[in-house]
Amino acid sequence: MKTSDKLWKDLLNGKVPEQLGQEVDQFETEIGLRKQGKIEEKVFAETRLRRGAYGQRYDNGQRYDGTESRKLPFADKPTKGPGTVWDAPGMLRIKVPFGGLNPRQLEVMAELAEEYSDGIAHVTTRQDFQLHFIHIENTPTIMRRLAAVGITTREACGNAVRNVTACPLAGVCHDEPFDVTPYSKALAWFLMGHPDTMEFGRKFKPAFSGCAQHACGLVQMHDIGYTALVRPGADGKLQRGFKIVVGGGLGPVPRQARILTEFAPVEEMLPLTQAVCRVFGKHGEKKNRNGARIKFLVDKWGIEKFREEVFATRKELREDPRWLGMLQDIEKEEEGPLHPPGQLPAFGGNDRLYEWVKGNVRDQRQAGYVTAAINLPLGDITADQLRSLADIVAKYTRGTIRTTVEQNFLIRWISKTDVPALFADLDRVELAAPGATSIVDVTSCPGTDTCKLGISSSRGLGGELRNQLVAKSYQLDEAVKGLHIKVSGCFNSCGGHYVSDLGFYGVSRTINGYKVPHFQVLLGGEWEHNAGSYGLPIIAIPSKRVPAAVDFVTEFYVKNRLKDERFHAFVKRVGKGPVRALLEPLNQNFPTHEADPGFYSDWGDPRQYSIGDIGIGECAGEVVSRYQFEMTAAERLVFEAGQHLDQDRLQAAGETAYAAFLRAAKALVQIQFDDVSNDPDEIVAEFKERFFDTQVFFDPFVGPKFANDFFAAHAVRGEKFTADTTHHRIAEAQLFIEAVHNCYNKLRSAPAPATKA
């Protein structure tokens, strides 16, 4: 019997898979070998990532390097581990396929958060759990305790198949043709450790949705996505299947997934996915990580060639009994209730209960039952709250609870009769906050708190926005309450800023000689229709003025929208120009550092964000004014490109985005060479010689990517643009502009060269 077959059968029988235990033993051995210097760090890094263990940032931006002690958030607790470079406290990501959990698993998660972390468990935007400040020498013990309740961290990170996400309403939604839960579970265990998934150049994220119109599955922004469908079969009965899409993703430059097949019978789900994985593993980029996601292979080949290769590979696959075996009797799998159905009792003047029911409770398609969302601030829940939640779930259901892509919990199969008692129990442990999935339910990535890529504090801003919106929630217009706000600490969109009504991602600017945290404001994203469209940046504003920006935009929406007009449609109708004009005053009348030092710090961190060293012996005023003049023009051009795109002037949009590239590059070049002309070839040549060949422009994490985007745009200038290529070019131009700002800040902060006596 194959190891993968044994794993599958153990899981189906509710046993702790022997394979998981053996793999943890192997990992513990590798940790010991790494301590002894017998495994290279590069090799060990990929090993630990495939086990879910990440490195972590410390002290709000200062990375732990082993040279000095860092004060951790739980400084009153003894730290564990020797504190060397490679085993400094990090983050452990824990896979939760389709978000499904039971009370015992919640209890174990609470124990681990309390014993090995800072007492907080974090729910991610892909339904995982994360524990921060974990020492790697403790991870084998944690992994064994998780395995004992059927949970693994395997392939939660690294170049592997990540967590298989699914709509948390699957099985109880009114609009689905069938429950995708058992299929997502089958795919998760089928792909884990599969030989055809071991040669990926980057991560691979699958997602399931029960319908096309809602956002619960977000399949359009995934590497591979499955939407449930039914159609008449040869025998006249309805046949289950999936519309399968590939090549979606967010990241710096987002991609909408393309259709692989309009309908694949459920029997073809596993073999067809295996074929996709084999094609990606064989032909995907390996050397350049910036182009190694499957979306770039789909772009390079085109969906027609990619589709042909996948179906040809499917025909070549050796028959695997698990293709059908893992789906055996799957249609009979169904959750059930603990209590009989009922009717919702009268609220009796309880306004808080009314608001909670209105925002957090939803009818199931099964009469007499509802789901209840647990609104977690920024996805965080304490160990004590997790224990209480486990008891509550066991009290009212058969253990039917799931995490959601909006960093919340969803309890299912609650009898309507039990709703007031459930609310009271949740309220006692501070888990009855109203407004789940509303504007107050702000989503944020970890940002500068723990992520090495964070530029501005996304959690700090997200928390502040949440607090301010909650404080005035009773005054908010109903149309505003339905908006989504998502915040990322950098351009990588881990917070989902591209697909929200109001999106923000962290950038940095220099004001009065000081670096100041900023956020780009994005408009045009659509959360519904499984992440139906992506937004574009319109303006960068100081972080401390973002709450005012939210007020400006929402008030403008309420005042000028048509009856029943959703925000996405409103932005499309009025255009981004009026909104940008509305926000431009936020980039004026900056206070001096002496008058308002708090303006120059990030949310949640009273320290100065950073200091720009003007340098000695330079005509700083002249250089700054010329640089700012050119960069203002570049940012105006990239915004105008977005306006052209909104009006379907694709060629004008693409050419304007290219012009923005040139203007930003010239801004940087003229710092060193003030005689540069407007000739594109000269600008490119000077930029390459002064900033690319010297690697001064390289980003510490993505290297030459943004410069290469510029060179590629220059090489194909004059090309005919499509809607997709135009959107990509605009997004790339915006990222290049941000990279120019970062390079400029780095140059201004560098020590002045020594002068001769």
The name of the CATH architecture of the largest domain is 2-Layer Sandwich
Helix content: 25-40%
The named CATH superfamily of the largest domain: Sulfite Reductase Hemoprotein, domain 1
Question: How can the largest sheet be summarized?
Answer: 6 strands, mixed
Q: What is the CATH domain class of the largest domain?
A: Alpha Beta
Strand content: 15-25%
Give a written overview of the molecule.
By secondary structure, this protein is of the alpha+beta class. The model is unreliable at 59-87, 611-625 and 752-757 (pLDDT under 50). The chain folds into five domains: 3-147, no CATH class; 173-332, Sulfite Reductase Hemoprotein, domain 1 (2-Layer Sandwich), CATH 3.30.413; 351-428, Alpha-Beta Plaits; 439-612, Sulfite Reductase Hemoprotein, domain 1 (2-Layer Sandwich); 615-757, Four Helix Bundle (Hemerythrin (Met), subunit A) (Up-down Bundle). It is 40% helix and 16% strand. It contains 24 helices and 25 strands. α2 runs antiparallel to α3 and α20 (620-646) runs antiparallel to α21 (650-672). A hairpin with a 2-residue loop joins β23 (601-602) and β24. The strands form six sheets. Strands 18, 19, 20, 21, 22 and 25 form a six-stranded mixed beta sheet that branches. A five-stranded antiparallel beta sheet has the order 1-4-7-6-15.
